[in-house]
């Protein structure tokens, strides 16, 4: 199962303080907008998203259709197909993509400890 680019989404209380902290660890902002309370920061191939007031808890994020640099892939497994595969394996979904649509969509599964795993396709 190919899930696409990976990042961790962190629910933060103070976006500026978090950006400063992760900046000290070598991360730089490459996407997002602090005025909208979210940024994506990168250190090499490692991506983290900082979200103030957007996420209820930290999440694992996969982006079908993108590589680790958020560049479109020539071929990939659509999130709706990933969703069907997960359902066929008995994985319960907390949120589902509309299987009648195409293009951008998302679904969410919870791991055994309740951690959200967000499959978020942008293409």
Given as residue ranges, the uncertain stretches (5+ residues, pLDDT < 50) are none
Distance between the termini: 18 Å
Describe the oligomeric state of these chains in a short phrase: single chain
Percent range for β-strand residues: 35-45%
Helix content: 10-25%
- Total of DSSP H or I helical runs spanning 4+ residues: 2
Main sheet: strand order:
2-3-4-1-5-8-7-6
Radius of gyration: 15 Å
General shape: globular
The largest β sheet comes out as:
8 strands, mixed
Count of distinct strands = 8
- What structural category characterises the helix and strand content? alpha+beta
Description:
There is one protein chain. With 123 residues, the chain is of the alpha+beta class. It contains 2 helices and 8 strands. It has an 8-stranded mixed sheet with strand order 2-3-4-1-5-8-7-6, with helices on one face. A hairpin with a 5-residue loop joins strand 7 and strand 8. The longest helix is centred in the first third of the chain and has 10 residues. The protein starts with a strand and ends with a strand.
Summarize the structure.
Helix content is 16%, strand content 38%. The protein is α+β, with helices and mostly antiparallel strands and 123 residues long.
